[in-house]
């Protein structure tokens, strides 16, 4: 079956512009996570969805970052007024339960 | 969540067995030990998880001593395609998991 997909795969934007990153989880997975990975570093947790609710937004680095999920399916991560330090790979993962997470290929964001 | 510590890098040769040890001194009763593999420009891939003793699947084995304060991922007869970063994490079985990824172990397999 299809895995987690993310779009776009690459995004180059100018500082100050807004960007939207999309995640399509595996069908039926109720849990969805967003992570950020800077070059050569480990992953940072951003936000967790259970269904369409986000009980844990503690990883969002600033109020420029927001995310939503609809239909217990697709999720969108929005970054407003992008800054150069936002440049990273943004990874989405979905999970059928409590332990194993399935990651998408990520969106590489470059802010110039 | 328990913090994990693992070597930054390791080198091996094709056909050898590779053992990567991870320490997690503060692991809690409800925590499972999980390992992920990440290739360049890809998202991490779950490879194995365990609670205690030994777990084996088609990819790897995971050895966990009785005190659960450490674990060892064993990759039998590695090939060049096993060159990747390997992350050791603890995952809480009682709810959701915002996985805390450290820097991982960068394994380089040489011909």
Low-confidence stretches of chain A are none
- Biggest sheet architecture of chain B: 5 strands, mixed
Number of strands of chain A: 11
Q: How confident overall, as mean pLDDT of chain B?
A: 90
What order do the helices and strands of chain B follow? EEEEEEEEE
Structural class of chain A: mainly beta
- Order of strands, widest sheet of chain B: 1-9-8-3-4
Number of helices of chain A: 0
Share of residues in strands of chain A: over 45%
- Which structural class do the helices and strands of chain B define? mainly beta
Kindly report the average pLDDT value of chain A.
92
Can you summarize the main beta sheet of chain A? 7 strands, mixed
Task: Please state the CA-atom Rg of chain B, rounded to the nearest Å.
Answer: 13 Å
Distance between the termini of chain B: 38 Å
Shape of chain A: globular
Structural key phrases:
heterodimer, A: 112 residues, mainly beta, 0% helix, B: mainly beta, 9 strands
Task: Describe it.
The complex is a heterodimer of chains A (112) and B (111). In chain A, strands 2, 4, 5, 6, 9, 10 and 11 form a 7-stranded mixed beta sheet that branches. In chain A, strands 1-3-8-7 form a 4-stranded antiparallel beta sheet, with no helix packed on it. Chain A is mostly beta strands and 112 residues long. The radius of gyration of chain A is 13 Å and the shape is globular. Chain A is built from no helices and 11 strands. The termini of chain B are far apart. The relative contact order of chain B is 0.35. The model of chain B has no long low-confidence stretch (mean pLDDT 90).
